[in-house]
Design goal:
There is one protein chain. This protein is an alpha/beta fold. It has a domain at 101-246: P-loop containing nucleotide triphosphate hydrolases (Rossmann fold, 3-Layer(aba) Sandwich), CATH 3.40.50. 51% of the residues lie in helices and 13% in strands. It is built from twelve helices and eight strands. An eight-stranded mixed beta sheet has the order 3-2-4-1-5-6-7-8, sandwiched between helices. The longest helix is centred in the first third of the chain and has 17 residues, at 50-66. The two termini are 24 Å apart.
């Protein structure tokens, strides 16, 4: 299954609920003030958020007036373009490739973090990269064993220590192992911290300092975020970003929510790019995020696809 089909399938619940209602707005013969009011209500109900919704509706209204749009179907096209514009406005970090790339993965318990790490490792391994996993969630023995199980399944070495050990030491050992084995990519698991716990966030800062020692230009910090948490996900992202300066988001469980609008809120309010989305439960259910593909999947089969490179 190609990435568009995976994204389209993951967004099925969102598309069948509120976006079908949005599409219904554009079956009208003319543009009325009632259309704008209903569009705003539907976007807010889908976890796009008040601020981002107001920005979207204002921009589409301005375009409709400037281009003298008369047909509601043209407004739908303008809405798609503005959505894609918001999603593209948060560019992904460019990581230099003159050594092992390091991905520090953070997130709260229950977000699907460890499974997402396995998906990410499998994706990069499938692209011909040698990958190492670092089990720096030492607070839970189950977290270590779970990562080791995934590593054995996908053929990736896991650097670990005993439960209760120093997570920063695990990160250091992973750096040493990556250098000696000439690994292309090190992916670091961390404890599922609550974004409201100060001591946990301070520990996370320490881990990142260790991870960045070898080459700060080679590290990215990825937040795994459960799409079903809605606007609470924004609070999580803000707290983690303040602590460790996030460079992107892996959005999980998108197939389990009818409120996929949180994607727009994250990109608009936090200026963080969505790098990957979880499109199901199997190891291959991961898609690199593409703004055009995402917006097309929301509106298909009603409208044509946007040019994702535009």
């Amino acid at each position: 299954m190609d990435f568009f089909k995976k994204t389209e399938q993951a967004l099925k619940r969102t598309r069948e609920s509120w976006f079908n209602k949005v599409t219904g707005l554009f079956d009208r013969p003319s543009i009325t003030e009632e259309l704008w009011d209903e569009l705003e209500e539907l976007l807010i109900s889908a976890d796009v958020g008040v601020a981002t919704t107001e920005k979207l509706v204002t921009r589409v209204k301005q375009k409709a007036q400037a281009d003298r749009l008369r047909d509601a179907g043209q407004v739908r096209i303008a809405l798609k373009e503005e959505m894609a514009g918001i999603l593209k406005a948060a560019p992904a970090m460019r990581v230099r490739q003159d050594g092992a790339r390091v991905t520090l993965v953070v997130g709260v318990n229950g977000s699907g973090k460890t499974t997402s790490i396995a998906k990410l490792a499998n994706l990069h391994r499938g692209r011909g990269c040698s990958v190492l996993l670092a089990a720096a969630d030492t607070f839970r023995s189950a977290a270590i064993s779970q990562l080791q199980t995934w590593g054995a399944r996908i053929g990736v070495e896991v650097i670990a220590t005993r439960p209760g050990g120093d997570p920063a030491a695990v990160v250091y050992d992973a750096h040493q192992a990556a250098a000696s084995r000439r690994a292309d990519h090190v992916i670091i698991d961390t404890a599922g911290r609550l974004h409201t716990k100060f001591n946990f966030m301070e520990e996370l800062k320490k881990i990142k300092r260790i991870a960045a020692r070898a080459n700060p230009a080679m590290i990215e910090t990825l937040l795994v975020l459960d799409a079903t948490t809605g606007q609470n996900g924004l609070a999580q992202a803000r707290s983690f970003s303040e602590a460790v300066e996030l460079t992107g988001v892996f959005l999980t469980k998108l197939d389990g929510t009818a409120k996929g609008g949180i994607v727009l809120a994250i990109c608009d309010q936090l200026k963080l790019p969505i790098l990957y989305i979880g499109t199901g439960e199997s190891l291959d259910d991961i898609s690199p995020f593409d703004a055009g593909t995402f917006v097309d999947a929301l509106f298909e089969p009603v409208g044509g696809r946007l040019d994702s490179n535009g």
